[in-house]
Design the sequence.
């Protein structure tokens, strides 16, 4: 193998697995260390720069960072990265003086933002400070999009939304709320230099099965029903409720139903429990609130009597796998099952709806009736129209919408400045030694062995009485410190200097995970099998030195390294050093 090149941003970035997995590339270990130091406001601002909504995401993020967490490789549970983000939000001081200020000089460029959800708000946050004239349109009377309309208040309090959305709208822009865009052609005619569409995936999928029309009064589309609850239009539901679907929307529907009078609430899913799209913690929360989840049942018909819903008839199915391991559901041969209910909430998926975009304006759609959007620039086939969030590639989580917004803002800024939008700005990186003495480091390199701490919950009997009462109480400062200490500081890298190495193998002897090996070089597949501990994770690169005086090379398996620093402490020549790698994404305007 060739010597590992760690000169560019990607090698060490990928070693910081949590940050690599985060769509917005939030510097996770950096803000966790700040929390451990009690510097909550600084931790909040690190988050605010990258993911824009720390308090919101600290309660609702889909947590792609946590499955990637290195702590999860050495014990069962990863660090509670998401809930620590909330700690920063809950304990920060007033940040008003630390928010950016719009430039005094008007750029003369006008940008329209369709939809006031997380993608559009991110674009607005990045462009407002560059002097752009921004106009934010939304059909609802208050901004926030799906953050406000679809996430129940017992998960995300209104005041958190108001605060973090307010930080953005307060940067200076024209808010045209309660004004729905009915024609993209008409909007284009208003002469905006760029238009960003962040209108989400506003239409819930329906079920066209017998009885749907006859019992329509008590069959509700899940996301529409959640919106009606959020805006106070619905305050109760029947005693017996069936929720159809296995995603996070279904979990929100069933838990909301429990708070609005549903005593017998069931979630019924066509797939197996493990295959459900809902996050594991969302399923756990539903089960904790005494909501059973029934699997491998496919709805066949809504039963009704005298125009009123009486229940749902289901066919029992089982999984069957072909020779390639692909699964399909086939009838089990067991009798159909009927479940009585008073109301049904259909949460079987969401889809985009673009009836307001004319098909004769040069904007191309694909075979799924989605706009053709470049996955890097977020530009459509109309050069000055961009898409992001759920409107671009279908339903995902808020953090993905934020990532889309950052990239679209770069594209819009470059377009308006006459630059090539295909040339993306490189992230800013630094690599700085953490050495303070022979055996001292400027970071805590002795992480706790504690198991993951559980976030305190409100008493169930109290929580189920009020649809607006937040269930999770969050970590207090003491628990937050304990959880923060579980972080392995993966951004503090083990950096090897061949010229200083005397091949004494002291680092090999002291390494607690056997991740360092001095051996003859070879092809990667061969080399991975000859290490002191075989390197089995092919997704994580090996750290390989150039040839040493004996002809051997140093090979480190980054996959199992704990970044404990023992190799650097033990090395008699300083060939190993612990250096903090910090990567910050460059946003709009930062490339000039």
Sequence:
């Amino acid at each position: 193998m060739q010597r590992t090149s760690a000169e560019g941003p990607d090698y060490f970035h990928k070693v910081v697995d949590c940050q690599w997995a985060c769509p917005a590339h939030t510097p996770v270990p950096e803000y966790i260390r700040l929390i451990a130091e009690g510097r909550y406001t600084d931790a909040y601002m690190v988050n605010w720069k990258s993911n824009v909504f720390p308090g919101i995401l600290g309660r609702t993020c889909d947590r792609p960072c946590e499955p990637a967490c290195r702590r999860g490789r050495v014990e069962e549970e990863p660090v509670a990265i998401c809930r620590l983000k909330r700690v920063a939000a809950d304990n920060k001081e007033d940040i008003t003086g630390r928010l950016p200020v719009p430039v005094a000089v008007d750029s003369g460029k006008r940008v329209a933002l369709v939809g006031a959800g997380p993608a559009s708000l991110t674009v607005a946050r990045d462009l407002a400070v560059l002097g752009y004239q921004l106009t934010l349109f939304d059909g609802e009377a208050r901004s926030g999009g799906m953050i406000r309309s679809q996430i129940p208040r017992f998960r995300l309090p209104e005041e958190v939304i108001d605060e973090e959305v307010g930080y953005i709208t307060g940067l200076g822009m024209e808010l045209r709320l309660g004004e729905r865009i009915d024609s993209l052609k008409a909007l284009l005619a208003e002469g905006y230099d760029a238009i960003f569409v962040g209108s989400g995936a506003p239409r819930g999928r329906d079920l066209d099965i017998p009885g749907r029309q006859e019992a329509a009064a008590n069959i509700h589309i899940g996301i529409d029903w959640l919106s009606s609850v959020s805006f106070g239009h619905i305050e109760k539901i029947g005693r017996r409720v069936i929720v159809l679907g296995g995603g996070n929307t279904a979990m929100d529907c069933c838990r909301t139903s429990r708070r609005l009078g549903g005593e017998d609430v069931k979630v019924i899913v066509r797939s197996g429990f493990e295959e459900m799209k809902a996050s594991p913690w969302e399923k756990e929360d539903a089960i904790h609130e005494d909501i059973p989840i029934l699997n491998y049942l496919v709805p066949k018909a809504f039963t009704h009597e005298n125009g009123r819903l009486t229940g749902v008839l289901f066919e029992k199915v089982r999984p069957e796998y072909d020779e390639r391991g692909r699964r399909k559901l086939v009838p089990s041969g067991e009798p159909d099952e009927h479940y009585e209910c008073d109301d049904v909430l259909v949460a079987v998926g969401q889809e985009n709806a673009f009836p307001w975009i004319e098909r004769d304006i040069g904007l191309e759609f694909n075979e799924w009736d989605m706009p053709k959007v470049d996955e890097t620039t977020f530009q459509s086939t109309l050069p000055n129209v961009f898409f992001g969030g759920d409107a671009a590639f279908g339903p995902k989580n808020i953090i993905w919408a934020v990532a889309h917004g950052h990239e679209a803002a770069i594209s819009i800024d470059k377009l308006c400045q006459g630059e090539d939008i295909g040339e993306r700005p490189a992230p800013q990186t630094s690599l700085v030694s953490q050495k303070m003495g022979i055996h001292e480091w400027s970071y805590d390199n002795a992480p706790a062995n504690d198991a993951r701490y559980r976030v305190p919950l409100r008493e169930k009997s109290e929580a189920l009485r009020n649809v607006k009462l937040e269930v999770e109480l969050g970590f207090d400062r003491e628990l937050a410190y304990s959880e923060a200490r579980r972080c392995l500081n993966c951004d503090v890298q083990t950096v090897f200097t061949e010229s200083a190495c005397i091949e004494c193998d002291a680092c090999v002897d002291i390494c607690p995970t056997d991740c360092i090996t001095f051996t003859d070089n070879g092809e990667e597949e061969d080399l991975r099998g000859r290490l002191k501990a075989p390197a089995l994770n092919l997704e994580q690169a090996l750290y390989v030195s150039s040839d040493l005086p004996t002809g051997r090379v140093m090979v480190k398996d980054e996959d199992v390294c704990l970044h404990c620093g023992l190799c650097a402490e033990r090395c008699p020549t300083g060939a190993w050093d612990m250096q903090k790698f910090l990567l910050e994404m460059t946003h709009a305007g930062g490339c000039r």
Notes: The longest helix spans residues 398-416.
